[in-house]
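fyi for ur records
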Amino acid sequence: MQLLSNDVKTFLSLVCSLVLFSGAASLAAEDAAKTGNAKSLAAAETAFAQEALAKGTRTAFLHALSDNSTVFLPGPLNGKKAWEAKPESKAVLQWQPVLAATSTTGDFGYTTGPWSFKNDPADTVAATHGQFVSIWRWENGKWKLCFDLGSENPAPTAPAPELQLADNHAPNEAAEDAQPVMRAHDGRYAADRAGQLAGCAEDKIRLYLPKQFPIIGATAASAALQKETVPVKFSAPTGGEVSRGGDLGYVWGEYHNGAATEASGYYMRIWRKDRAGEWKLALDLSHPR
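which gave:
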């Protein structure tokens, strides 16, 4: 049998190395495509907002929404079906994220920030302002919008704060085990928000009360709830979800003000585990009907 020359051996060695490197790079790219992060989530939200300005709000929502999403128009509806039924409009909905946060596993996240609405593009002043909160799920290599709710506030007098990115780092736990624990924490908080917030909230919790600017920080949020004079009763959660790694989730449902027999509005609350694996309240929003 004829032996291979040194040149041929070197060539074959290089070919094998290239093949192995190409395969490893391909696998790395494939793994990266399996999950997202806060940076890619912020980019997805920003692209969504830009498409709304360029092509219309209806088109943008239909591109962004997951098939099993929930939106409020004004009550809870399947997002895709609701926006498919809406005609195109010349009204302008404009928004930007100021916070994008994702789960440790990168499959789940949320964004929030200010929005404004104009009935006509020619209007020089927006008719209404508020804050949006959107829940996103990583599906087939991209972020898809699965829950969208917001609040209203007065016209802002200062520019929006700079974008913050938050990738979580918490112990892993199966979602089916984590969700009932998260809901138990939420139930205790809902029964006495003013009394419970200080002990269960993140330092930078965001509290969105009707017709108010965002209240940020546990001290300020606790003080705001202490000032509320009308009791609020929260129903058990209607829905919600937890990340695959069991460290980020949300709940939503109805609430009643005072002795009201019909629901006064909808709530949604986001919970996130800290590095020690403890559930902490990250965001609390009330959306009047």
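Residues 108 and 243 are 5 Å apart (CA to CA). thats all i got for now
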